[in-house]
Amino acid sequence: MTAPRAGWVDGMQYCNWSRRIFEQMREAGLSAVHATVAYHEGFRPTVDKIVAWNWRFRDHADLIIPGRSAADLMRALSSNRTAIILGLQNPLPIEDDLGLVAVLHELGIRVMQLTYNNQSLLGCGWTEAEDSGLTKFGREVVREMNRIGMLIDLSHAGERTALDTIAASQRPVAITHATPASWREGKRQVSDTLLKALADSGGMLGFSLYPYHLRDGSATTLSSFCEMVARTAESVGVVHLGIGSDLCQDQPDEALLWMREGKWLRADRGQGKPEFPAQPPWFEDSRGFANIAGGLRDAGFAAADVEAMLGTNWQRFFRAAFRPWGEGER
Amino acid sequence: MTAPRAGWVDGMQYCNWSRRIFEQMREAGLSAVHATVAYHEGFRPTVDKIVAWNWRFRDHADLIIPGRSAADLMRALSSNRTAIILGLQNPLPIEDDLGLVAVLHELGIRVMQLTYNNQSLLGCGWTEAEDSGLTKFGREVVREMNRIGMLIDLSHAGERTALDTIAASQRPVAITHATPASWREGKRQVSDTLLKALADSGGMLGFSLYPYHLRDGSATTLSSFCEMVARTAESVGVVHLGIGSDLCQDQPDEALLWMREGKWLRADRGQGKPEFPAQPPWFEDSRGFANIAGGLRDAGFAAADVEAMLGTNWQRFFRAAFRPWGEGER
After folding, report:
1. Which of A43, A187, A253, A297 counts the most CB atoms within 10 A of its CB?
2. Does A61 touch chain B (CB under 8 A)?
3. Looking at beta carbons, which residues of chain A come within 8 Å of B108?
4. pLDDT tens-digit profile of B255-310?
């Protein structure tokens, strides 16, 4: 595997972070990675996880830097390091306090999902039987995220909540990690309606490489994946597309249990605990970006479009998304 | 009372904040005020208090701005507003976690006392029978505060802890609110030994206007106060001196109980609850700065020295103190 040029971006990873993983990001030429900090954690344990990131930034300053602004993303590129953009997959860390959005922003959080799989205080996740849409508190949080420059992520939202949010948000939003429902059926995937609304509002979709989001799971071929990208690009245009691998490298299976159940569910363990599926062999870690580049070229994409989808689209989008809006006090 | 020129600084206030108080700061010509956020609060309630400040900064943006950097202090001056510098009188908000120093710094805290009146995890307060000095954790926190640019405040420290800290700190420290023990006896006041060590290391003393720190309490005259300032200036030089009023304007007496007892003491209430003493009539609120200016001129100070002690010394000192040291990651 040859080291690709720098500048690619992964729109979402949730790895069991280590120096080896950061080194692989560098080998892969990733200039930025959006990293999940919390799923079902409240505010206080989320702060502990941010502290752990602060130490990582100091311990591995030769490989990674905090990715909080356009300037940080540029600095990562120019110094051959990876900007780590911290994000939350669930709004539990803000509790019921609008003021905690700005607090978490000041601590470096730049992306937040309004819902994980379940109903949240802000809106509805994709696994609920009924989606009643964006709540009153949800509308306040959307306004606040717009104001301070925290990107709204709808990856795990129910469709009505997602459409409500796109309509309510004055800034483009993202679905950082998902695939189209036209390729793999299911409510977790993005319907044509949602994909169109997302693109029409200037949003971004990051294509997931998580096997449960791939048409044939772990056996999905690179060419099938790249054909799907090609069809999606024909439908909404290359400019709205990137990668959000959902890579869960080196995570123990307990992490999957936490993602699925948090503290709210205690399922029957008769059939044993769930296990992470195997990654497809062409995307086992960040270095798989080179394989995707090759696959996209084989699927007929021009070199500039490959670069756009593997990096420059997210670069442009994140730079705009993290900019504070209007007359901030600081 | 005429409105004095802008640029004066109060090195410490703990008022029951309101728009009226911020308006008085403007009338007084205060370009910066160090405001206490917490005494006996832990991390989580301190975050709630920071959130309350964030809303104040938005609700009263015409009067106050966050004071976090030299640039903020300059901006306050040039826009005729007061920079509010947030500080902690106790290290309880960092719990036992070195990483929370940087977290609170990112949330805007720029000053922290290593001890309030009692023993803390970092060192000893002035009310303990024995002061065993700066602890192991205390030395780590001093190093971290030095690194990120959070000012060390020794106002309530025991003398040995204070001297240990001055020796351990690689940057100048402050006693933001106190008076010399040579003027009013007592362990809460600053001994000649400590005053000399503070000045020799480039530190600052803010003169308190809290009656319990004044020689004759509420009856202390302006000329007595200014004579004391003159003697202190002869001893250590004008450059190390400022005002740190310890003004507790509009606070209910419960606030005094909280300051004294927190959650650690439940004293016999046979004699009723303690009450705040009356301020001397020449310093009832921030506008008393004009009276002090007059008093200092009457005591023989040149106009430039009055300006230095009422504002420019703290301005210079804070600008340097808040600058991150060495190669910060950001």
Report:
1. A43
2. yes
3. 106
4. 999 999 999 998 887 778 899 999 999 999 999 999 999 999 999 999 999 999 99
Q: Residue A13: helix, strand or coil by DSSP? A: strand
Residues in chain B, pLDDT under 50: 1-4, 327-330
Residue A155's closest CA among A213, A219, A73, A229?
A213
Looking at the structure of chain B, the number of domains it has is 1
Domain-embedded: residue B327: no
CATH code assigned at A139: 3.20.20.140
Q: Does A55 touch chain B (CB under 8 A)?
A: yes
What is the token pair recorded at B95? 């719990």
Torsion, Cα A58 B328 B10 B216, to 10 degrees, reads 60
Between residues 229 and 258 of chain A, which touch chain B (CB distance below 8 Å)?
none
- To the nearest whole angstrom, how far is the Cα of B99 from the nearest Cα of chain A? 6
What number is the average pLDDT over the span A51-72? 98
**How far is it between the farthest Cα atoms of chain A?**
56
> Residue B50 is part of which domain span?
8-261+271-321
**Residue A327, domain member (yes or no):** no
- A79 interface with B at CB cutoff 8 Å: no
| A98-120 mean pLDDT | 97
Asked, for residue A245, whether it belongs to a domain, the answer is: yes
Q: Is the ipTM of this complex over 0.95?
A: no
- With cut-offs at 50, 70 and 90, classify the pLDDT of residue A272: confident
In a domain, B1, yes or no: no
- Out of A72, A97, A107, the one facing B103 most closely (by C-beta) is A107
> Residue B197 in contact with residue B163, Cβ under 8 Å?
yes
